[in-house]
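Sequence, please.
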């Protein structure tokens, strides 16, 4: 009788222990899944995007300084009517470009790959490309200070070359402004859609 009771107690204890192990296992699994979901949310969802808004906004603000230095034309006709490339001399723009490039490049290295980073990168690169071509037609103007007859000795091909380069610069300014506007739009939608970038997960 005692043996039976003892056996019953052992079996009862084993069953209770098994139930307890199953319950604990389920609880631990649920906690583990919850932790993984939380970590995923922090690294791929709202947490990371929310953290990126501040540096991304700083990059956009820096690029706006470059945009404010140049003329952005909507059409070839608008360019033909004005033909001015910037509100500041080339040297001033180049100095500002170098400063902004350092600031924005550092920010870009901390942003995850995505549409926002792409638009900011393309805007900066377009400003750099515009500056590269602007330099090509800026150099003769330095010579022009000591050689006043330069304008009178320019050939039609020289004039055509300068006009085409100027238009190329204007196109890069327009591209830079377009990428910058799209970056601003993405940031605006992040703020209005619970910090999620439309079209990205």
């Amino acid at each position: 009788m005692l043996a039976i009771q003892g056996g019953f107690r052992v079996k009862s204890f084993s069953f209770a222990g098994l139930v307890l192990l199953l319950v604990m296992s389920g609880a631990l699994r649920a906690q583990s899944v919850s932790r993984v979901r939380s970590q995923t949310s922090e690294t791929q969802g709202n947490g990371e995007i929310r953290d990126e808004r501040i540096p991304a906004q700083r990059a956009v603000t820096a690029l706006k300084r470059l945009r404010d230095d140049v003329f952005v034309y909507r059409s070839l006709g608008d360019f033909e009517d004005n033909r001015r490339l910037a509100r500041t001399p080339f040297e001033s723009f180049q100095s500002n470009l170098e400063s902004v490039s350092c600031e924005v490049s550092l920010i870009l290295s901390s942003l995850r790959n995505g549409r926002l980073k792409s638009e900011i990168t393309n805007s900066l690169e377009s400003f750099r490309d515009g500056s590269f071509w602007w330099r090509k037609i800026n150099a003769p103007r330095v010579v022009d200070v000591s050689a006043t007859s330069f304008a009178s000795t320019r050939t039609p091909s020289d004039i055509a070359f300068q006009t085409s380069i100027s238009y190329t610069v204007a196109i890069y300014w327009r591209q830079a402004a377009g990428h910058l506007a799209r970056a601003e739009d993405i940031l605006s939608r992040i703020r209005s859609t619970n910090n999620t970038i439309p079209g990205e997960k």
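The chain has two domains: 1-44, 51-192.
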